[in-house]
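Sat 14:20. Reprocessing the chain from the morning session after the first attempt stalled halfway. Input below, unchanged.
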Amino acid sequence: MIQSPAAPAAPALPLDPARATCVDSAPAGSAPSVAHGPCAEPTRVLARFEDWARNTPQAPAVIDDTRIWTYRDLDAAAALVAADLADRVRPGDLVGVCLDRSTALVVTAVALARLGAVYLPLGPRPGERRIQAVTEDLDVACLIGDPGVLPEEHRGGQHLPLALPTDGVNAPAVAVAAVADSVPGTRRAPEGALYAVLTSGSTGRPKAVAVAESSLSVALDWYRSETGLAPGDRQSLLIGVAFDPHLLELWAALTSGAALVPAPDDTRWDSRVLTDWWRDTALTHAVAATPTVEPLLDRPWPQDLKLRHLVVGGDRMRRRPGADVTATVHNAYGPAEATVVTTTHTMRGTDPEAGDRTPPPIGTALPGVTLVVTDEEGRPVARGQEGELRVGGHCLALGYLDPELTARRFTAPAPDAELPAVERLYRTGDRVRMNTDGSLDFLGRLDDQVKISGVRIEPAEVEAAFEQDPRVRTAVVTVLRDSSGHGRLVAHVRPTDGTEPAAGDLLDAVRSWLPEQAVPTAVRIVDGFPLDANGKVDRLALAARSQTDRAQAPRSPLAAASGDPAEAAAGTGAAAVVAVTAAERLVLTTVRDLLGRPDTGLGDHFTDAGGTSVVAARLLATVERETGVRLRAPELLRSTDLRAFAALLDQRLTAHPEGA
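Finished this time. Tokens:
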């Protein structure tokens, strides 16, 4: 790796006194639940990258499989794409990016920043109806991606070829800017936005939040300072593109003179593949979702990694890293409305608490961040008391593209809150407790919003997706949690009179509306819903029914594999009754347990049954633990159904019998 001298400091942005946060932390004891991070001053993002490109042009910027793109290469490629788009994209325009983690994505992000356009990441294969909802609400100038995976209305319209890289990891076969006519009445991004991301909306439609360059710069400055990311280091590009933490990865590397390493898709399905990738690419810094990292903490940590810092977030961390973990692990918290990261708690293998199977705190405020734990009226509660977390400071987004929603969620502090330097606080809806040292313990949500595989989901959005189907009269979504606290969604559907929809058909229909994590693992057809004393749907009773149904399914993979075949195959799925081999019983029982679907059969394909990347990782881990056979995620996904996957396991067991 080429070692490069430090780039000159990027110019600071003008500091807005109303957003300044530079106050000493409140004293311990009976102090109110108010805490301020260290002083921070916004800087530039794009200018810092351009400094590296100018001063260290030969340093690696992207290491994409076998090809290395230098800062000069990346700078030149972005200039070409910006020139191609210049006649179509104006400053402030929203541009939907339908690319995966790749050099093409990095080039696009830099090009749009140069144009002053607003980067709107939608993921490599956004659902057609989801895109339709986005373009009906937002004034999207164009979509960038492979025309073969773009929504139908963008496939046949005007296409502008783009000189984006088409080789390397997750690269598009070809890339275009697909231009569609603007819809009257759609919303533009607020002035000064660098990017916008979609978050789950309680109205059933995704809502977009816009973030300024200054807010991202403060998070990036913290990341560089905290992790020491510098020239010669290698930073992961691992987080799914539809979610905002990938922007922390992308711009942290490009503003540090370090190299980005895009992750192959199978790293998100198998935690062992992930650590192999860390080793093979000599990664020094990584960001990963909590559900992806948790399986790694349950087994010995690989001792041959160069990984020095691992930032983990997106879900509650349920245990601390053990004493054998050689990387510094940062448990991070932060909604998109507060620019990716708001608080962190740092853990090392040398800590006295290392290995504790208790949830660590979500930490203390980042530079420029103000934390306030409030009662229902917005007044700070005393430290040690529970309340809603509200966040202010440089980290705050500009707001939603819906002004009314912005007004509801970004509010002024209570008059008696004594926060003279803070004009706005974002209401997170998260229930927390502030400790005497200013750190926070995460206690859950105050509303119906849930987290599935690290992604915030509004059940109302999922319900609305089902209710778009004319066969559905009403849908109610509940959360089923296993003993370790992992959640999965269950949809309870009341059909329209005269229809008898199949659960699988309904799931197929909603996939085009929802991101992967929001697609329920099970659909239950019901005649009606239980009501509470106020005449509202009793969601707790519905969830209890799902839990009862789940309890009736086989629970112990090991017991099922060694017990009576008929008992292990019990269930309503027609294909289940022929589960006769130990491998079939193990696979079927484990999948049913992980998905909470006792009707899953061997004839079902894993993803059609509701399998996701996180569920796949847990299935593969269980198979390896119970049999000693390590199978890979692609082998699971390529199998025609669960029976074929079990047959593959049987083959490996025969080739490597126990004791051989």
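Residues 1-21, 23-29, 551-577 have pLDDT under 50 and may be disordered.
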